Fold:
Amino acid sequence: MQSITHEDQFRFAYRHVLGEVAENPRISGVEIAERLAAVLAHLEAEEEHRTCRCGRAIVMPVGATQWVHDTRDRERGCRAATFTSSGGWDDSNPRSWTAKPAKP
Ligand SMILES: [Zn+2]
Structure:
């Protein structure tokens, strides 16, 4: 069981681009930024998107084996995904719920 955050994806892209820099040390900063953006865009394009049983958008990142909510912190838990700094958590779903596609 593995969940993959935005930070994990950035680390993957960074390592990939570092490999390119090792092969081509004269690469410019702009080229590095463009390649980083391209790798991240590719990872995002390959993600699978669904609607969670809690009604929120969820995503299966490339290489992950667990669904996460499509939020900044990619929470597994449905309640955690409802957090806002102004309103706190929404307790309308069971605390035990984690991201899982809704039944069609
Ligand atoms: Zn959910």
